[in-house]
Specification:
The protein has 428 residues and is α+β, with helices and mostly antiparallel strands. It has 2 domains: 91 residues, Nucleic acid-binding proteins (OB fold (Dihydrolipoamide Acetyltransferase, E2P), Beta Barrel), CATH 2.40.50; 295 residues, Bira Bifunctional Protein, Domain 2 (BirA Bifunctional Protein, domain 2). Helix content is 28%, strand content 27%. The chain is built from 12 helices and 16 strands. The strands form 3 sheets. Strands 6-10-11-16-15-14-13-12 form an 8-stranded mixed sheet, sandwiched between helices.
Length: 428
């Protein structure tokens, strides 16, 4: 019948049992204080020598991070956090710390990021780090919530593939019996197959694996995506769904994670609207600012930062990218094939979501694969799916870690992956 610390009130009566970690202790001779921590907060436990058994008084000076069970009563104390404290009548040690901790959960001693990642199970006890992952949990929860409201069905695709599904990113090979196989770099094919199969609106939260040897603060080699695909739709339809989902996520984080946002020093502002700008409009804007840029090139970080400075909007869409700058499966615009039915959702100057209307015609898909300098024979498994009656469809994907990073404003995306995988890290 454990009581969580957040459930304690000043007028809580009777004996309660608390479980948690020793956050800190203070010894003032005849009086000792123990700050107990569980996943909901902190509470002060106070014992006076002579008024409690000697063994109990001794246990009030346990090493930090010792796991304990404490039974006691609540006493009003104005100087204590929350205006009350726990007077113990039993302190049971469940597991005593037996090593020198490499990370300080009280955050008084700063550790390097790699040291913290090596000891993530201790790092997660820090209020700031826990707040990041509380926010990440709310992001995925609210994504599922809104998808359910909109009547979108969740699916669970495989992450083991026999060949590349996008053609661009390198793949991680795996041993799969006697066959050649890889970890999926994208669930793109599978959400399209679900839509072709008649499940007209689908979503999923799935891992992506990218075997790219980059060393930046903005990339990791395994990340999670919140994906959406819908049938009988253009990119504009997909954008309308994204507007609702994205604003709902931000609103839910602001409402349900106010304490966590405060802990990391973020004042989250939810945009009232998300405007649309074409790629060409924005290229004209940055050229007028004196920035050298060739139409048809992909927008890089320098261009994205400049656009953010010009627009001064937290969230906006960039639409109608050049067809040649997008993935081969992106539908060209029927009126002007040089531009595509595509979009990116930018948030705080960073690409947060990428999406498009997909090519559903096998002949056009073959043509675009050739235009990209690739061999259609290598994509026969993909092209063939569209020969069985594929509807027009569109979709998008949100990077979970990237959105978490943008909301929490961390300097390194590895802070927003609980157990990140990069070119150097495969443990823990």
């Amino acid at each position: 019948m454990r009581t969580m610390i957040s459930e304690i009130k000043k007028d809580t009566s009777g004996t309660i049992e608390l479980n948690g970690w020793v956050h800190e202790t203070r010894d003032h001779g005849k009086i000792r204080f123990l700050i107990l921590r569980d996943c909901t907060g902190l509470v002060q436990v106070t014992a006076k020598k002579g008024s409690v058994p000697d063994e109990l008084f001794s246990n009030m000076s346990l090493p930090k991070e010792t796991v304990v069970s404490i039974k006691g009563t609540i006493k009003e104390e104005k100087q204590a956090p929350g205006g009350f404290e726990v007077v113990p009548n039993e302190v049971e040690v469940l597991n005593k710390v037996s090593i020198l901790l490499p990370v300080d959960p009280t955050e008084k001693v700063v550790s390097e990021l790699d040291v913290r990642l090596d000891n993530r199970h201790i790092d997660l006890r820090r209020k700031k780090i826990r707040s990041i992952f509380d926010i990440q949990s709310e992001i995925s929860r609210s994504f599922r919530e809104k998808a359910g409201e909109l009547g979108i069905q969740e699916i669970f695709p495989t992450t083991i593939v026999g060949a590349a599904t996008e053609g661009g990113a390198e793949l991680f090979p795996i041993v799969y019996f006697e066959k050649e196989a890889f970890l999926s770099q994208s669930p793109q094919l599978y959400k399209q197959l679900a839509v072709i199969g008649g499940i007209e609106k689908v979503y999923m939260i799935v891992p992506y694996y990218r075997a790219e040897k980059h060393k930046t603060t903005a990339h990791i080699n395994q990340f999670w995506g919140m994906d959406f695909e819908m049938a009988f739709a253009t990119h504009k339809d997909a954008m309308n769904v994204l507007r609702e989902v994205f604003l709902h996520i931000l609103g839910s984080v602001k409402k349900n994670c106010s304490k966590q946002l405060e802990a990391i020093g973020v004042d989250l502002v939810v945009p009232k609207e998300i405007k649309e700008y074409t790629y060409t409009e924005l290229v004209d804007m940055i050229i007028k600012k004196g920035h050298k840029f060739d139409w048809g090139s992909d927008l890089g970080r320098d261009e994205e930062r400049l656009i953010f400075e010009i627009l001064k909007e937290d969230a906006y869409f960039i639409t109608e990218y050049p067809t040649d700058a997008r993935a081969f499966y992106t539908m060209p615009n029927t009126e002007n094939p040089k531009v595509s039915n595509s979009f990116d959702l930018m948030y705080r100057g960073l690409e947060m979501v990428s999406g498009s209307q997909r090519i559903h015609l096998p002949e056009l898909l073959t043509e675009r694969i050739k235009a990209k300098g690739m061999n259609p024979d290598n994509f026969e498994f993909y092209i063939n799916a569209f020969r069985s009656g594929a509807p027009p469809h569109a979709g998008w994907a949100i990077g979970v870690e990237r959105l978490t990073n943008a909301i929490t404003r961390q300097s390194n995306i590895r802070e927003c992956s609980m157990f990140p995988r990069d070119i150097d890290r495969i443990s823990p």
